[in-house]
């Protein structure tokens, strides 16, 4: 996604975008480059610049929305009338029954019962059916009334509110900008700075409102289109009678509307994603532009007195470019009154020009463009306004005013660079010293101020439009003005005229009014193809269309060249245009319009303001596939680089488009390409054939009873398992690690042909094989071709054999079925032909199953004895073919197998007519294989088997004789060594067996041990005085009480290791004992845990006490050291005290040594 980029210095955002895109493309690999799809939001770019194109476009779109609103109100009224009228139609249908004669009248004798009554009854019933069918045809879903109402009340009202806010803020912004530019130089700098910041705040609001308006326009446009499609579909989604639709000739209308509704359903999801992109783009654009237009903080940047003729240029600033676009105020006069008007000015490619809005503010117009070789420029410090500079020519002087000091220096620098390039002849085209007029009077500025009038020449321009109307393609002129043209990136009231102009002239590379009304203030289409370098300075005259070129294609060609004129090659003509969805990768689906020329495929997208241009070379295409879905056909395009893209087609026939593209691809491969008229004639034949097939299928559907036989579905969602073993003999079945499509092209591609090699007894030379192209078979959609392999004289009586190959089923990369019928052969009086049938079925995305069936057809059943031998010969050939096939697949590698297979093996190229390619010589009906060939073959097989058997027997005899001789002639040492070796081997074998069983037993024991549930051992501490606690009770005599003694002997309280809970009399007391024992055990475990913690605490407390004792001894020792260091003069007179202190200190030292010794002992 490409978003608007700005230079903080506001020099130019355009070259920077181009440079960044070129650098990104260079860093991308080839496949990523092809998959990369660049989208440019032209509307947001123009809105961020507030260009004249943006203002004209939003005004024109607003006018169109008002017309659409009136149209929607009319639709709502019409639908309401239809809904109310349906009840009356049903009443009329019921009243028709009054035409039927009552029973009373029919028996009166007045009415003839045989004819009159029958006529009235039949007429009444028929008219009732007509009215009821009419009511059914006009029936629609009444929910669309609510849909239209919500669209008008919600989306349209939201847009109107935003439009009113935009107009208010736009007026305020223009007013504040004008007031800021009017401020004189003598004003205090602080006041000027304050006004600049006020304009900055208003500009931010205006930018936000502009982007929001564009977002609302894109959203509203999308909603209107989807609503109108819902309205159209509501009339065709009911239970309509197909026969009635066919009778009225509107069955095709129903089909088209349903496919369009399917397109709408698919695009809705992508529109939601696109809406998120619009919101993201809107936010990013607002952030970037807000940062770029912030006024400077220094007061010196507002002081004009610091400027001189020498310091008005940017010296050494990065990012300076040689082009500039933007708004400036121009000094002019109107009715002898001096005025400053706002104009869009540009300097590019050595030219100076001005854009302005038309009087109705619905289009962009221009003045003459003047070459800078005719212009002198200078800084204008004497002007009463700030930041002014002057441009002078021989006949006019133009005074311009910039908004800021940086803007002034930028303009002056760009003008200086352009002038230096002209003087150094870096810009040497003829326009640098010329004055260019507007291309047509419609594009010439109609502003009536003095400078605008002086800079605009309109004389002699009307003849161009008159010349247009006189062209042979005048119906094209009328048709374009009916509004039948493509949606341009931006739309103004002159967009149609701009497309018209491009039918005759190629617009130049520099900005001009023609491009401004199609692309914007800058041709944004150039940034899709930055690598294209071409001289487009000259406005060249285009060639007229030939008489055989249809008007529809003329219109499409003009549309194409107005969009892709930057890269369009002279001589290319549009051959086909189609509405489609382009799928460049798995994440994007772009919908727009595709154009097909003799050399390229072009795609243009303009969806919700995002524009994209794509061009692909037809010469790079290696295969095109078509698959039909429910509401659309899908084309898959394979390129030589490995890139694969898809195209969804909703309104056209995918098969027809595929045939046309294939026709152009084959034409590109011809040494002498065919003419445009010849290709268009073939296109017409393809269209006529399609119309004929549709007519035949319609008749067939009307006359055919639905079959109970289900054909193979094209979508192939269910697995296929077709077995031909009932009629054929299965010779080969194997699964290959390649997709089915790879195997299919390996057998039948244009560059290879290996299927004919399976025929036994015939030696062919594959590199000299002649074959026809694939063409429609006798039973469409089958494809057929003839193969004529080169045959040596030693094999058969004729140099030629003919093989007919037929493709019967093709389901893309899922299932293929084809067969080959050989020419009738004769060998030893046995006349037969062979049908070889091959099926390729998908097993997985990277694997496929190949089956080869064989059915020899003999002229007489008595020759069936030859069948087993023929199967054996055939299988030997298939085995040889399998080896060749594996080599071919191995060379493809494991990545991009399908594309590589298409490159190596070739596509399935189809032509409309059967081109018979027969080598020189006659083709015999029955080709006789020489009997010597079969004799030599059988002899070879027999000799080989006999030799193998003989060598086997001789080898066995040699081994027996050698063994016997070695036993007879051996001495005792050798025999002893052999015996010792035998005994040693037996001993080692016994050790091995013993070790094995020992290891096996150990392993089994360890495995069983590991499977057992582990026991968790826990330590429990019980009190020894628990007996005393019980015996201390007054009613128990611990020595003489028999009950108490028995309790001591059996209870778990005193017999913990040997307790037996089964000693209890019943289940209830036993369960209670279990619970009590568990509680008793848990108390012991907790007591152990608490005692451990208590020991830890006691140990910690002891360590703390010892640490404190050691610390206190160290303190006292340090005090003693201080006393020992006292001078003798100080201690005189205190000898007794000092002696007692020294004794105390000695004790401290002794204790400290003991502490250290104890610590070392612990360590």
TrEMBL record:
Signal peptide: none annotated. Residues 727-893 form the VASt domain. Residues 321-420 form the PH domain. GO terms for cellular component: cytoplasm; membrane. Gene3D superfamilies: Arfaptin homology (AH) domain/BAR domain, Pleckstrin-homology domain (PH domain)/Phosphotyrosine-binding domain (PTB). The keyword Cytoplasm does not apply. Transmembrane segments: none annotated. It is found in: Membrane. Keywords: Membrane, Transmembrane, Transmembrane helix. This is BA75_02350T0. The gene is SIP3.
